[in-house]
Amino acid sequence: MMQNKQLPNVHLRKEWDLRVRTWFNQPGRKLRRRNARVAKAAKIAPRPLELLRPAVHCPTVKYNRKTRVGRGFTLEELKAAGISAKYAATIGIAVDYRRKNRSEESLAVNTQRVKDYLAQLIVLPTQAKQRTSEQKQAYQAAVQVPGQVVPLPKVAAAEAPRAVTAEEKQVQAYVTLRKARGAYKSHGIAQKRKAELKEKKANSVKK
After folding, report:
1. Which residues pair with 56 in a beta bridge?
2. What are the residues whose beta carbons fall under 8 Å from the beta carbon of 116, sequence distance 6 or more?
3. Is residue 88 within 8 Å of 117, Cβ to Cβ?
4. Arithmetic mean of pLDDT, 114-126
5. Residue 144 and residue 47: Cα distance in Å, rounded?
6. CA 37, CA 202: separation in Å to the nearest integer?
7. Per-residue pLDDT tens for 88-119?
8. Distance from chain centroid for Cα 41
9. Does 207 score more than 70 pLDDT?
10. What is the pLDDT of residues 35-90, one digit of tens each?
11. One-character DSSP codes across the chain
C-alpha cells in the first residue's frame, strides 16, 4: 500500500439473488398452457375451438384494403341471417353490440358467413329421447375444426401488368381530383346562390 490510505473493505455480500426477478418457470408454464389447450379441445369435441367471427377491414388508409377476423357480428348481420343475438351466443357465434355496418358489402359478406356456418351446424336436442339416429351419426362423424369454421373471403387477385392506353394517358388525375374537391367544398354556396337567383327572377316576374 502506498501512502496512508484506507484499507480496501468492499461489501460484496448484498444478497442480490433475493432482489432479482427470475423466470425459471417459463418452460413449465408453456407446457401447462399447452396441456390445458389439449384438454379443453378434447372436452368440447367435436365443437370448434374458436367462435365464429366476422370479416372486417383494418383501420387507417394504409391497411384498410386488408381483411381480418373481427370481434363479433352486429345485430343487423344476425337479423339478416335470421337468428337472434341471444341464440347466436349459445351456438358458437361471437356477438359485438358496439360495431356498426358502414356498407352493404360488409353486411352481405358477414351475413353469408353466418348462413354458411348454420348450414354446417349440428344442434342436438337437450333431451336424449328427442335425438334421431341421423343426428347421432352426424355428430359422431363430425371433425373438430382448429381455426375458423368458415374461412375468410379471398381478396381479389391483383391485375396483371399491361400497357397504358391512349385514353388513360389523356386523363388528368390531379386536375380531376382538384375539381371534385372544389365542387364538394362549394356545394352549399352554389346551391344558395341558385336559390337566390331563382327567388330574384320570381320576384321580377311578379312586378
Report:
1. 68
2. 150
3. no
4. 93
5. 6
6. 78
7. 999 999 999 999 999 999 999 999 999 999 99
8. 24
9. no
10. 999 999 999 989 999 999 999 999 999 999 899 999 999 999 999 999 999 999 99
11. --SS-PPP-------GGGS----TTHHHHHHHHHHHHHHHHHHHTTS-SS-B--EEEPSHHHHTTSEEE-S-B-HHHHHHHT--HHHHHHTTB-B-SS----SHHHHHHHHHHHHHHHHH-----SSGGG--HHHHHHHHH----SS-SSPPPPPPPPPPP-PPPHHHHH--HHHHHHHHHHHHHTHHHHHHHHHHHHHHHHHHHH-
> What is the C-alpha separation between 48 and 37, in angstroms, rounded?
13
Cα 164 to Cα 112: distance, rounded to the nearest angstrom: 37
Comparison of pLDDT for 111 and 1, the residue scoring more: 111
How far apart are alpha carbons 57 and 54 in whole angstroms? 10
Asked whether residue 14 carries a pLDDT value surpassing 80, the answer given is no
CB–CB of 122/139 below 8 Å? yes
Residues contacting residue 7 through CB under 8 Å, at least 6 positions apart: 1
All three cell numbers of 128, joined, read 336424449
CA-based max dimension of the chain: 120
Q: Partners of 68 in the beta sheet?
A: 56
- 14 neighbors 115 (Cβ within 8 angstroms): no
